[in-house]
Please model this.
Amino acid sequence: MTSVLDAALEKSHLVPVDQKWVTKRVGRFPLAWQPTVESEYVHIWEKAGFSDANVRLRELSDQMLLPNTGLMVSSDRKVVEGYAEVISKRLEMEFTDFKKRTGDLIFSVNCVKDEVVKRGLTFPLDLEKEYTKEQLIAALARVFDPHWWRRKIAVIQGRKLEQIARDLKLVCRHKQVYCSNQTVSNRKGQLSRNKRMLEGLEVVSDTDDVLSLIDCVEASVANPENRRAELMARMRGFEDVANHLGHQGIFFTLTAPSKFHAIHSKGYQNKKHQGGDPREVQQYLCRVWSEVRAAWDRDGIKTYGFRVVEPHHD
Model:
């Protein structure tokens, strides 16, 4: 049993119904998160009893599982790569078998789609619409590519990881600001791997000039420094145009309502939070801003400029 739980057990002289079950559930979380999970378990146990503590732990730990994959949100890259190799080859074989036995391309594609959706991913095409045979084959080629699976699973892992971190109150002004340290570490690792790969590749121009791919990337807007400089140059251009036309620049700040914020700025849980994630906040702000622009357009007001999104502390 882990230290936080051990101390609580020793203090209370009570034993959980199933210590192995608790330990196994806590073990699903990243190592750095486990003390927080244990502390929350003990807190609920002391306030409301084992039953509520076990329900909360079950809910949190179940979120760490990726459906019908055997993977967890915290599964490392090597494990995901192994799964991607297996599932992509398996679905390709099943498709070939379905197609051979039925002779029905659409039915066979739908069978593959069902397997993809069952694992929490989105099939490359919306099969409610009509597509050409070439489009269907192109979509299948993605599903049969292990790289496609790795990318899609990595996106799901990142999003779910951050949602769970917010549920555990790890992401806020007084702890891990904007996103979890786990995500920061994962992103740094990804950038490092990408850089090593680019450093080992070269490109050949139409005039047979050989260039290092990493040099090309760093000279383009894929380089964050260049991208920022280009943004500032465009802003200056908009300002010059506005001054020339005698227009007035106005700065608006739209803020998401309380229901989207998990933690108050002082560090305690927001009871009004309804579980929304950053994508839902973005959709909300986009909708509000589109309504604002539509209202202005009806009044004959035309706008130009920039819209940027700033993360809240949680």
Notes: Residues 77-102 form the longest helix (26 residues). The beta strands are 202-204, 210-212.
